Amino acid sequence: MTRPQRVLLKEKSPAGVLRRTAVSHIGFRVPDLQVTTRFYGRVLGMHVHDITDERVRLGWGAGHHVLELREGEKGLHHYGFEVRDDGGLDGIRERLNDAGIPFEPLSADYVDHAVGDADGIVVTDPDGTAVHFHTTVARPGENAADPGRRPIKFQHTTLGTADVQPVVDFFTTIGFRVSDQLADGRFCWLRSDRDHHTLAVVNVGIGGDLDHYSYDLAEWEDFKSWCDRLTELDVPVAWGPGRHGPGNNLFVFFDDPAGTHIELSAEMEKFYDDRVEYTPRRWTPTPGSVNLWGGQLPVWRKTSEGN
Ligand SMILES: [Fe+2]
Hints:
The chain is α/β, with parallel strands linked by helices. The chain folds into two domains: 21-134, Roll (2,3-Dihydroxybiphenyl 1,2-Dioxygenase, domain 1); 153-284, 2,3-Dihydroxybiphenyl 1,2-Dioxygenase, domain 1 (Roll), CATH 3.10.180.
């Protein structure tokens, strides 16, 4: 029997660390813009904020947008982070300059509802996808009531790539820290605030892909409401409910009409970088690590050991 391959994803020593940076928005292409826009209203409780000939922006009624949809072949267009760290954006600029990674100013219309002066940059990740970083924005429409019918916030983005290490290098250069990885090096979870991950990277064999993205629910009780409501809306639950090993978060997955995997999550592990030193854990790459509750996997996921 061949011994399973073990890969240690290296984390650079941090030149600067982000502690108050969270996902901001995400943009992807969908084959049928109208159908997908209606889905996000009907199922996720979102409102259309803004429409142009090129794209539709959606969010929860007020404040910064969450989603930007464009018509086209299914795929990731860009993803963004809100940098709430004091001087955080300048620190990112400095670290990118030191690493010789070029970046451009971000169009101010991606920083809608800026608190103070809108400021941002756009940089290209190792797979060629645009990544936005911008200063604090107002989000009065989030964390609101009715958690059984709408999530409380956008929580993380999980990129699909063909090579995990360069993406990890890129984001640790910017100021993210590695929280956990699978021991075969095919999955890595990174943090930029107290949450165990705001970004994850998984080897799916092709670069520039969106593996899934996730919204937070308030508590376990909400999962029951959501699974019942998804069933009433004829949206099949694709995976879960379960609990992930890395992050220890509860999860359930379903797909939008374009086949984009959406995760609902709660109870994610918190990291206290200013009080504790952490060593990234290396999880055995088995279904039981990714799903502690019995190890069932979705049809699109394989682990290198155990299935
Ligand atoms: Fe996730």
